């Protein structure tokens, strides 16, 4: 009987559906975020976003898992998650959206899976292959094209704006959140971890908004701004973050983060449909290059994972009599 050919481990259909849903929700956050910061300050929008998210996630945790009992190490992990993936990420995200188009910002963030794969190799000694390295480099080149609008010399001339740098900060911070979350899932469920990160991040954002004096400044906010904040809290955070954490737990950080390359597609389409945004040809070409690089990275990562699992275990040496 012929042996079955090697293939990467199959992805559970439920995880696939959740990752696709997360990509759509996160694509929508770029539109909702851009609408929200037109009517309220970024700090206020972020604080109320995670207030909504923490309420929903807290109710789910109580209903499914009971009252959380976190030890000191758990709290340190949750504080690190809240600082990286909630507080600092949202400062970069929302202040960046005040300066550049939603679709273009999402094209920059498409670099995230390649950044995760590179960090996995550099920091955690994940296996690397020529194909995987090529994919990472290709994604970085594409990101450079998007950031500089097709003229890489602008980077060296100091002509890249603060909006682009802030969105690049999102890439770094999300990679940090992904790996901290991987550690967190050793003792915390994805739901509890997402709730704890949202809670600690909300506390940081609220203090910052109170110091800024903008937490209750809703004089110019209408239904588009309010509904955008609710969307950010409910779909972009409560559901999206939980589903992403579940995926990382089941299939690993590199494979899960590869689905982020669908986010810019959703953001560009929604930006054109809802905001009338038009992304320049150079940015679109750069986005295609990024997605191609991320796709190559993910496929190479899957092959490496399978090869490692298929390799025969080293023979045990018998203890001499």
Automatic annotation (TrEMBL):
Task: List locations, semicolon-separated.
Answer: Cell membrane
Gene3D superfamilies in alphabetical order: 1.10.3730.20
Q: How does it sit in the membrane?
A: Multi-pass membrane protein
List each copy of the EamA domain by range. Answer: 19-147, 162-298
Instruction: Quote the cellular component terms of the Gene Ontology held in the record.
Output: plasma membrane
Which ranges does the record mark as transmembrane? 12-33, 45-63, 75-97, 103-124, 131-150, 162-180, 192-211, 223-244, 256-275, 281-300
A Pfam cross-reference name? EamA
Ordered alphabetically, the record's keywords are: Cell membrane, Membrane, Transmembrane, Transmembrane helix
Q: What is its main location?
A: membrane
Which superkingdom? Bacteria
- According to UniProt, the name of this protein is Drug/metabolite transporter (DMT)-like permease
Q: What is the lineage of its organism?
A: Bacteria, Pseudomonadati, Pseudomonadota, Betaproteobacteria, Rhodocyclales
